[in-house]
Amino acid sequence: MLSRICSSSYWLIPCALVMASIAVTVVADETTSPAVPAGPKYALRYKFQPGDIIRTQIWHQANSETTISGTSQTAETTSGSIKVWRIKNVEPDGHITFEHSVESVDMRQKLSDRQEITYNSKTDKEPPPIYADVAKDVSVLLTVVTIDPSGKILKRIDRGQKTTTDPQNSDMVVPLPAEPVAMGESWNIPQDVPITLEDGDTKVIKTRQHYTLDKVVHGVATISVATQVLTPVNNPAIQSQLVQRLTEGMIRFDVDAGRVISKKLDLDERVLGFHGADSSVHFVGRFTEEYLPTTPKTASKDSAKK
Q1: For residues 83 and 104, what is the distance between their CA atoms, to the nearest angstrom?
Q2: 187 with 211: CB under 8 angstroms?
Q3: With 90 as the cut, is the pLDDT of residue 167 above it?
Q4: Is the dihedral angle over the CA atoms 43, 45, 49, 51 positive or is it negative?
Q5: In the chain, how many H helices and how many E strands?
């Protein structure tokens, strides 16, 4: 399903692009500030109105080069989509309920010595088999989500699934600090990341997303974000899975309008010896999301003359 494929933080999954639903659990939302910076504090809050339609353009590019026993293989993927939130309700306490869907997708995948596979939902009548499930999830309701003004997910109903009041973490909504923050202050979102071991068992790695309010200019807040690993990891096989999540980047948030206007995350990591002494893997990726303002309708030339 697109709601799963387009939410993965595994940078090499071709369709990782829309709303992260990886098996990573939010443990808490805390604000940290060893030394409180001077200056004004800013309340970063989501502000939507019933009937609002929020569209964003998402692009996700991911490349990898894997070498094992002297043989190298490359994988290149590009995934684009238009994400849509339809705001259905806003409670007096600020809780927001919206419907999430994907309006269109544009995908490409190229593996070593294989023909490139492409799919564009706007122009292609039939998707290739690899994108068949993705095509089914275009232009349909995928998820109904309720968040508080800081972006904490309070309830989530995925298509075909039961309501959950303890939803898994997702990067669907950028988490904001619970309290007003000054420039230089940070907040953390701890995450437990399950890693699959060679014997099939699972090992949980503790990480966190570290956010910092860098500046506020003309009502737009610039927030830096980086993934920090808290559990010591010395096994290259585990590192090869974990590094695909080690992104860092920048978020721009419109304080007055109460919405994210852009997000950019980058990844560039290399792991040696993950599958034998002479093995290596190099991951490079970029994720971007841009808010698409509603274009106001303009009067026709005849109307203008009148």
Answers
A1: 8
A2: yes
A3: no
A4: positive
A5: 4, 16
Q: Measuring CA to CA, which residue among 169, 209, 189 is closest to residue 24?
A: 169
Q: How many CA atoms lie within 13 A of 32 on its CB side?
A: 12
Whole-angstrom Cα Rg for the chain: 21
Task: Give, in order, the Cα–Cα distances in Å from 303 to each of 121, 222, 297.
Answer: 36, 42, 13
| Distance of alpha carbon 286 from alpha carbon 158, whole angstroms | 27
Q: Write out pLDDT tens, residues 223-268.
A: 999 999 999 999 999 999 898 889 999 999 999 999 999 999 999 9
**Statement: residue 164 has pLDDT above 80:** no
SS3 of residue 152 by DSSP = coil
pTM of the predicted protein model: 0.83
> Using one digit for the tens of pLDDT, what is the confidence trace for 55-68?
999 999 999 999 99
**For residue 172, how far is the Cα from the chain centroid?**
6
Gap between the Cα atoms of 31 and 150, Å rounded: 12
**CA–CA gap between residue 89 and residue 75 (Å, rounded):** 42
Q: Could you tell me which of 106, 134, 136, 132 has the C-alpha nearest to residue 118?
A: 106
Q: How many angstroms separate the Cα of 215 from the Cα of each of 5, 79, 255?
A: 34, 31, 12
Burial of 191 (0-12, 13-18, 19+ CB in 10 A): buried
Whole-number Å distance between alpha carbons of 153 and 96? 10
